[in-house]
Amino acid sequence: MENTKPEETWNTPQTVKPENKKVLAGVLGIIFGYLGIHKFILGYTKEGIIQIVLSVVTCGAAGIVGFIEGIIYLTKSDDDFYQTYQVGKKPWF
Q1: Alpha helix stretches (DSSP H) within 1-93
Q2: pLDDT tens for each residue of 64-75
Q3: By Cβ atoms counted within 10 A, which residue in 5, 29, 65, 86 is the most buried?
Q4: C-alpha atoms less than 13 angstroms from C-alpha of 22 in its C-beta half-sphere
Q5: pTM above 0.90?
């Protein structure tokens, strides 16, 4: 008879799940959309600066873009959000 050893699971390396910034970017987009903070969180520096400039030029009216993006972020599934905005780097809507 062969000595079968049960598989040890306590010391096997766990796969690291990449950080999903969906909730953080969504909430910041809704609350501070006019400042473009949600863009900076996702790594879109150029788009974040554009959002700030547009908000200043339009006296805050361009903040509706951040508000809409925040809602879009929160309504997407976690995987869809991650693939679209963190892997695919889609900067607008």
Answers
A1: 22-32, 37-41, 45-57, 63-75, 78-81
A2: 999 999 999 999
A3: 29
A4: 17
A5: no
